[in-house]
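Re-run requested by the PI after the first attempt was lost when the workstation crashed. Everything re-entered from the original request form. Ligand of interest: adenosine-5'-diphosphate.
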Amino acid sequence: MTAVASPLTTTLEVRGVSVRFGGVIAVADVTFTAHTAEVLGVMGPNGAGKTTLFNVISGVQRPTSGEVSLGGSRLTGRGVEDVAALGVTRTFQTPVMFWGLTVRESVEVALAAREFGGTYPPAPWRELLRCGFGTPGRRRENAVLRECADAILTGAGIAAMAGRATESLAFGEERLLEMARALAVSPNVLLLDEPLSALNPDEIEAVLTSIRSARASGVAVLLVEHAVGELLAVADRVVVLDHGRKIAEGSPQAVAADPLVIDAYIGDELE
Ligand SMILES: Nc1ncnc2c1ncn2[C@@H]1O[C@H](COP(=O)(O)OP(=O)(O)O)[C@@H](O)[C@H]1O
Ligand SMILES: [Mg+2]
């Protein structure tokens, strides 16, 4: 496993990436860069290739051509675990929970995974054993871990959930915990695929707060989101895909006013 990711070296470069599934070209020669401490919105109608692009970046999907690199190191061709160890973290449409833990413990596990160079999402019990939870000699370290976890929960706006069992969480609360865990591993790059879907307004605010705090701590956040208003409000720059191609890139204002973008969305998400 590689050492702890540093948020200071991030520049994610996507160069000429194409993905073909049989006769379908899901991603067509897409090039862009995501920088440290920015939120890059990735917009596009259904089927535009957004999720496939995230799969390529996280190492789940090998591109047909092109490559992705991070801080000058090639990610393409590495396995998912290696890409994660280099600091590329993603959340899932359906949050992945660690049953049997409290919310705070779930974040402690993610923190321990970072300290011990593990992968994300970490295997909870292996990480707990590795960092010596419960042994007297580790009490002091565990207190530090707990303090860090509480700081992360506060930053993610869910300090009040700290003592609750993961089994008791509603869907939106699981999403908020997943965001907190993702922040706990100090990623270089955070890939968020529709993190606001099915959330209530308070939960949306909490996720947006987490996104902003990730940016403030130097993370390159890539955000795919169908809620276009929220995406344009939080993004520093936006890349727009349509039928796999990049059709626009620029400031939220410029992209929202771009006739090509408006055309792509007619009959889709933009009313
Ligand atoms: N595993 C796959 N096999 C075949 N076609 C796929 C696969 N994954 C995605 N596609 C196709 O690729 C295109 C882009 O899909 P996707 O990346 O999911 O778009 P988005 O996330 O923007 O809605 C769609 O036409 C979709 O049907
Ligand atoms: Mg998708």
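Saved to the shared folder this time. The chain is about 35% helix and 25% strand.
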